[in-house]
Amino acid sequence: xxxxxxxxxxxxxxxxxxxxxxxxxxxxxxxxxxxxxxxxxxxxxxxxxxxxxxxxxxxxxxxxxxxxxxxxxxxxxxxxxxxxxxxxxxxxxxxxxxxxxxxxxxxxxxxxxxxxxxxxxxxxxxxxxxxxxxxxxxxxxxxxxxxxxxxxxxxxxxxxxxxxxxxxxxxxxxxxxxxxxxxxxxxxxxxxxxxxxxxxxxxxxxxxxxxxxxxxxxxxxxxxxxxxxxxxxxxxxxxxxxxxxxxxxxxxxxxxxxxxxxxxxxxxxxxxxxxxxxxxxxxxxxxxxxxxxxxxxxxxxxxxxxxxxxxxxxxxxxxxxxxxxxxxxxxxxxxxxxxxxxxxxxxxxxxxxxxxxxxxxxxxxxxxxxxxxxxxxxxxxxxxxxxxxxxxxxxxxxxxxxxxxxxxxxxxxxxxxxxxxxxxxxxxxxxxxxxxxxxxxxxxxxxxxxxxxxxxxxxxxxxxxxxxxxxxxxxxxxxxxxxxxxxxxxxxxxxxxxxxxxxxxxxxxxxxxxxxxxxxxxxxxxxxxxxxxxxxxxxxxxxxxxxxxxxxxxxxxxxxxxxxxxxxxxxxxxxxxxxxxxxxxxxxxxxxxxxxxxxxxxxxxxxxxxxxxxxxxxxxxxxxxxxxxxxxxxxxxxxxxxxxxxxxxxxxx
Amino acid sequence: xxxxxxxxxxxxxxxxxxxxxxxxxxxxxxxxxxxxxxxxxxxxxxxxxxxxxxxxxxxxxxxxxxxxxxxxxxxxxxxxxxxxxxxxxxxxxxxxxxxxxxxxxxxxxxxxxxxxxxxxxxxxxxxxxxxxxxxxxxxxxxxxxxxxxxxxxxxxxxxxxxxxxxxxxxxxxxxxxxxxxxxxxxxxxxxxxxxxxxxxxxxxxxxxxxxxxxxxxxxxxxxxxxxxxxxxxxxxxxxxxxxxxxxxxxxxxxxxxxxxxxxxxxxxxxxxxxxxxxxxxxxxxxxxxxxxxxxxxxxxxxxxxxxxxxxxxxxxxxxxxxxx
Lengths: 653, 324
Hints:
Strand content of chain B: 25-35%
Shape of chain A: elongated
Order of helices and strands of chain B: HEEHHEEEEEEEEEEHEHEEHEEH
Radius of gyration of chain A: 37 Å
Number of strands of chain A: 20
Shape of chain B: elongated
Oligomer: heterodimer
Structural class of chain A: alpha+beta
Radius of gyration of chain B: 27 Å
Largest sheet of chain A: 5 strands, antiparallel
Number of helices of chain A: 23
Helix content of chain B: 25-40%
Strand content of chain A: 5-15%
Largest interface: A-B, 66 and 55 residues
Helix content of chain A: 40-55%
């Protein structure tokens, strides 16, 4: 009965919220989804204006069927964030065709909020925050128009919903800080690999060149204490053992024995925050030692493997020992894996290896000789090398002599293995740019690198970087950046002004703060917070107490501030003045009745007391004129107040 | 089974509230003590949505999703307070039911005052589930609201419990209060009867003659037909022209007096007689004739005018009841 339908302002706001929310999701919606929504909105607007009929039930069901097929065609599944978001957005578009009742519009707003959740799950950059807030505001304003009362204008809806949302913020903060978080996921979202740039589980020629063009952050590292020297800044990612002649792949990930790494030299304590990736590896400074953080396995080839792909930025606290001694003993099985070469390929490479090996019986000397070959061989470092044929390594070493880190690492490991020295390819990042504002080292996708590791008896695994020999300037870039704090970013801009670099670095520092403090707030941070609040080891109890106290405080605050708003407006000067007159008259024995107006009351008094009437009646008439008449000048009000005061004083004395 | 259980719970709670609040008299101000609030169906759906969002945020340890969920939760809770605030402090100045005819809708006039600095929206007052009036009151304003209620049978009745509710600000919560105002409404007999007015002291023939001769042209005004109106007073010319059913009203007093009683109505049962008398009283009022009523134990002298009509109809309404 109370259903007056949704007001036009409310439905307009709902459509605006839906379109904005769909727009912030555009990167993972199917291409046809946004046009469909725009079309449905336009159709709805036309229908609202002209009032033409809504499509029939059969048409709507048919449309829903077509959309489901469309999602299946676009994604091959209905599962997953992108497919789910597309399905939801498209179905909401269909709902727009039949939206009529308050309930329909509530459903549309619910879908909008769910789409907003999908956007939050997918992307968390700080610059998106105002857009997300806008979506929320529009939807909240629309919801406020769905109470069932008379339609309200959009300005009222927006103003009141903004106030309501602002009231909600303190509670949201309390819940955010103290609502118990889960340490891990119950179930994981299927990862959509092509949406994420970064290293992957395998390396084919050209792979890293693609990354080098990307300026996106890969990881940010904050050191507790000194930074390692620039030449030690190798960030270890996936380690690749298996080579089929074209592509390097991972081999296995057995857990490491406790003696695999023997710490030596200086230790660097650091926190690395890694962006979403598909390689399931914590990118760590070489050589990071155990213990591995929760949810991570420390493997015998010194990788930190995640049990699940990482779908959002995550922080890890680690310690690295760049001079550590690693795995001085190698089993035969391990040795065989890192000596394997694809059969019947690269004969000239094998021939070269045999020749160099014959001249250098010592493993270390052989490594030196091969590195020297790279140094002297006239190789060129380029991101756009010529295509390589079936015998890719032969082509690289003896004909094109062009390539980048991936090519050289691959060729170097081939030569090592052909010469009987166990070797493997390590992918990761090299270098990093110091951010003086946020005090952290920023490693970008463009810092992606590949190098080699060789195993020497008694010395264990050692890093060997043929690219450093071929193109020393490729690695010296970072040391330049170190000399001049903001030179790194300046160089990136190719001669841009220093202030531009400073702005960029400040922006990145803000991003990192956001990523680190807000997005990265998780169960362990929460326990630290509880610790800091100071209830010692009873962490969860502290959280519960803080949560309860915060919520109770908020509820009291809300009740109090709403009550303050609800209170009747305070009496103005006119009312205060008359109240005094009223009180004075009441003392004379005839108080004003609840139903009596001021004039009627004074006229009644005048019937019994003519003397009083001469004073009170003009006063009452003046009051009535000031209260109900046309706006009076301030002087008149003052005159009335004075007259009223005179009356109360004179008759009370 | 669920619906029956729900009804029983509502009934039980209603009785408890009745005992708790006692009888009430307007003017009254709605205090927090007597306000009840529950989520609506949409509110439960919203809670489910929030729960799903919370689980998603927790599972993926996604801070932004959790922040969104928590802001929304706060938004809903603020709305809950606002919903209660919509009723709290609202003043009912007056509630006055008008007399009504059995079988027709009675009107209950209520006047509310909003002394607060905020508007009160999406208010609904209802006497029965299907009879509701919705209204909004601006900040600092007063508003009269008329609520229709069903007048089932003749006599003196009490208007049952009234429910004043609001779903502001966004329909996820419904705050309500029950008003036990002990309002009395006099229900006149069902005005049905097709017999002509009885002969008057001045002679029936004259009246009829004047009716016939003057016809429809003498009517001063027309009003919409209501059930029970005499077919003779219908403006058939208007109907013939394709217009709506209208009833003619005479301008002045015709100047005949009618003695209304059970005489001549012996073939009808008691309610039938009272109904016929009721129609006659209305006819007299319409043509402006004076009439008197005599029933066993009741005698009202000749008179005319609104007050007289009301006295006659009330006598008919209360005939036979102990209060009469």
